[in-house]
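Worked example 2:
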Amino acid sequence: MTKKKAVVCCLFFSALLYGQSDSLSVTATKTIDLPPEELTFSVVLLTDQDTSLDQVMQALKDTGITAKDLGGVGSSQFGPNPNQTRLVYQFTLTTPLSKFKDTLDKFTAVRRGLIANNSTFELQANAVSITPTEAAREQARLQATPDLIADARRRADSLARAAGVTLGAIVGIGEVVSAPPGQFGGPIYGPFYGPIGQSGLKTTFAMSVRFAIK
């Protein structure tokens, strides 16, 4: 799953009887407040037009960024000269929240080194989001599953009794996990506006369960 937008993961498996009248489907939901554990940065390095990726990686080697973190390369105009076109290397770096200060210190050291060496490179970084780990979210999903199935059965049984029928076995399940993109931060050079503190993130688990009826 990806970390930087709203995550929707769908798992669907069957013997579903959607087109039949001898089944009943209900949906149960559960929202869990998970603690923030990972921090994602958007990192941009502005370079001259003839700069290679190897040169970029050499400049960023002390930040923890690798070539696999490269999200794209573009070009744009920056600076006072309207004819100055530069390459824009964009990276996404995810680190443990506990390493927040260490990561900021690495960015600061690299940026100061570029300035001290009169480099034409310019490093820009933003804290994009703060989220739970995928492992924590998956563990919460596994723990929520029995409760969701039990809740779905209670609701389905109530509906079945009201309709004068008997609830049977489960014949299909559809599952959706929905999570917010995280707590957003601001520029790390200049005033920093977040993320600050252990503000938990809500993840909602929804399960559609179809039961046979007789």
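The radius of gyration is 25 Å. Residues 7-36+133-182+196-213 form a domain with the Translation Initiation Factor IF3 fold (CATH 3.30.110.170).
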